[in-house]
Amino acid sequence: MRLPTRHLLGIENLHPRDISALLDLAESYALLNRSGKTRRDVLRGRTLINLFFEDSTRTRTSFELAGKRLGADVINMSVSTSSVSKGETLLDTAATLNAMNCDLLVVRHKASGAPALLAQKVDAAVINAGDGMHEHPTQALLDALTIRRHKGTLEGLTIAICGDIAHSRVARSNILLLIAMGSQVRVVGPPTLIPSGIEQFGVSVFHDMREGLRDADIVMALRLQTERMSGGMIPSAREFFTFYGLDAAKLAVAKPDALVMHPGPMNRGVEIDSQVADDMTRSVIREQVEMGVAVRMAVLDVLARTALRNA
Ligand code: NCD
Description:
It contains eleven helices and nine strands. By secondary structure, it is α/β, with parallel strands linked by helices. The strands form two sheets. A five-stranded parallel beta sheet has the order 7-6-5-8-9. A four-stranded parallel beta sheet has the order 2-1-3-4, with helices on both faces. This is Aspartate carbamoyltransferase.
């Protein structure tokens, strides 16, 4: 398969055909991972640098694992130990990494657009691992793969994304991907946490959880991203849980086989109740993490091939 761009900066520029092809390749990597085998020839001799200016557990480790399973040399740069904390600018850091002949650069940054800026300055293929409130494309791809494995398709499904939509790059990338693939997307949350005008993306807005979850095939809970909030957007975490926390009573109005998802990290008792999060008959939260490795292997594989073709 080929991608239209050298980089993966967002879902925005992907065609549904590209999304399906990436998911198919990721599915084959999911099976390979379950068999315990690796494909170290795919990225042998290539260097992958994980450049994380923001905290991460799942995303960073899964890119590391993905790179290693495909045979790349993987370097993790966390910013507090690098020269960035000594005042080096993003672009100076980019120039340094470029001089090291890095092939694949995975970037997480608090500023929306930082990976796109880096992509203009380095020779490596840049992968956006989350930029501010903008996009987190590999999360949307792994969510889509998890859904597709259970429901067979994304088309025609009703998907409720709940909670802090306003500050969530996960919500934004998921909305773009799911609408492109023919899902019906609902966003559910208090008015303060839903951006005005979001309907223009093709989603429907609900402020009542029971209305928003009614007959949904998928219910996705999101963390309250307090680090990105400028003021009191919710009265208290306790009150938020009462109205918007995903618990068994609210989930009961969704379809009987509705799946529960969460990108992590979870705040139990705030946006999701432990009973629901740990219910293995409904929750696919662990499978999302597993699919994260497979999706990142597919993305690294395709971008390395795209780069080779353009060389
Ligand atoms: C998300 C992120 O960083 O955007 N986490 C993740 O990558 N799995 C969601 C979050 O931080 O709440």
